[in-house]
UniProtKB/TrEMBL annotation:
Record-given protein name: serine O-acetyltransferase
Keywords, sorted A to Z: Acyltransferase, Amino-acid biosynthesis, Transferase
Gene Ontology cellular component list: cytoplasm
Transmembrane segments annotated in the record for this chain: none
One Pfam family recorded for the sequence: SATase_N
Organism of provenance: Brassica campestris
SUPFAM superfamilies in the record: Trimeric LpxA-like enzymes (SSF51161)
Highest taxon of source: Eukaryota
Keyword match Amino-acid biosynthesis: yes
Gene Ontology terms: biological process: cysteine biosynthetic process from serine
E.C. no: 2.3.1.30
Family listed: Belongs to the transferase hexapeptide repeat family.
Domain Serine acetyltransferase N-terminal: 85-189
Length: 351
């Protein structure tokens, strides 16, 4: 006798029979383990269940949100391993599963079953961005092919993970960022889309942009150029236009727009230097330059160039200290994440 129950997208099958445990099962079922409390989880690539033989009770969970078959392909080369960050992620995943065993199948499918950081990234992006008509295995094949061609992209992924871990006090671990930070995931999806855009595969690039916008509420045109060591903190409502350029070690908070003025064509978006910090809710409009190591206060509207190592704030934004006596930033704002120290320069600032 076969009983079926459903729970959050999974089917639970139980074979209630006193017959021999070697009876033939319906062809639609995976082999069923004997441990009554240990689910048989289809593993990421092989779909081989984990079996136990403690008693005659039989259960099987089938994941309905991810196809159970993946096309075979050659193992990913070591150039995608991501070095120490990937090894640290494996250690963190093991520790997390020891603390929360209920997450073992999720961590196995997302991290520990993969041979490299590139493979794990292609997997999680394909799961997050898939739809009923755009299956995850199709996206996985596309993503991993781009990553295999561009090992330098995985180095940028590693730098972005380090940026989140070092700059965001809410980030518990590399694994936490990798699985849960939509700003990080949106940035990595953009890297793949930008590569496709540069190869004149614009339809695919724009498709990825659209799915990232829908899934993460982050809209980055695939033509935009983004450096490494990027932190998109919270990331909701971040918009980056087609001809924008963002340097290395830049930190951008939620609600930031790097947009055009609406009156120009061609090269019409901002150029952000290395080490810049852009506060929440800021609009930087037009083909202007934010100099290296500059800081833009939250809620500012920037319409003109900001010199290097300068703090600008306001609507329209002005440099702290004015043009002649600009207060120079002595440390890299994009790394320090200090968003309020410039307030001490405002003699009339009171509460």
């Amino acid at each position: 006798m076969l009983s079926v129950s459903t729970s959050r997208g999974h089917l639970l099958y139980k074979l209630c029979s006193s017959s021999s445990p070697h009876n033939n099962h319906p062809s639609s079922l995976l082999p069923i383990p004997k441990d009554s409390m240990a689910p048989c989880i289809d593993t990421f690539r092989t779909c081989k269940p984990q079996l136990s033989h403690k008693d005659d009770s039989r259960f099987c969970y089938m994941n309905l949100f991810r196809p159970v078959h993946f096309p075979s392909r050659a193992p990913i080369t070591n150039s995608l391993d991501g070095g120490d960050v990937w090894l640290k992620m494996l250690e963190e995943a093991k520790s997390d599963v020891e603390q929360e065993p209920i997450l073992s199948s999720y961590y196995h499918a997302s991290i520990t079953s993969h041979p490299s950081l590139g493979s794990a990234l292609a997997n999680i992006l394909s799961v997050k961005l898939s739809t009923l008509t755009l299956p995850s295995n199709t996206l996985f094949e596309m993503f991993i092919s781009v990553l295999e061609e561009s090992p330098e992209m995985v180095e940028s992924v590693k730098q972005d993970l380090v940026a989140a871990k070092e700059r965001d006090p809410a980030c518990l671990s590399y694994v936490h960022c990798f699985l849960s930070f939509k700003g990080f995931l949106a940035c990595q999806a953009h890297r793949i889309a930008h590569k496709l855009w540069s190869q004149d595969r614009k339809i695919l690039a724009l498709l990825i942009q659209n799915r990232v916008s829908e899934a993460f509420a982050v809209d980055i045109h695939p033509g935009a150029k983004i450096g490494k060591g990027i932190l998109l903190d919270h990331a909701t409502a971040v918009v980056i236009g087609e001809t924008a350029v963002v340097g290395d070690n830049v930190s951008i908070l939620h609600g930031v727009t790097l947009g055009g003025t609406g009156k120009q064509c061609g090269d019409r978006h901002p150029k952000i230097g290395d080490g810049v910090l852009i506060g929440a809710g800021t609009c930087i409009l037009g083909n202007i330059t934010i100099g290296e190591g500059a800081k833009i206060g939250s809620g500012s509207v920037v319409l003109k160039d900001v010199p290097p190592r300068t703090t600008a704030v306001g609507n329209p934004a002005r440099p702290i200290g004015g043009k002649e006596n600009r207060r120079m930033v002595d440390k890299v704002p994009g790394l320090r994440m200090d968003q309020t120290s410039y307030l001490t320069e405002w003699s009339d600032y009171v509460i």
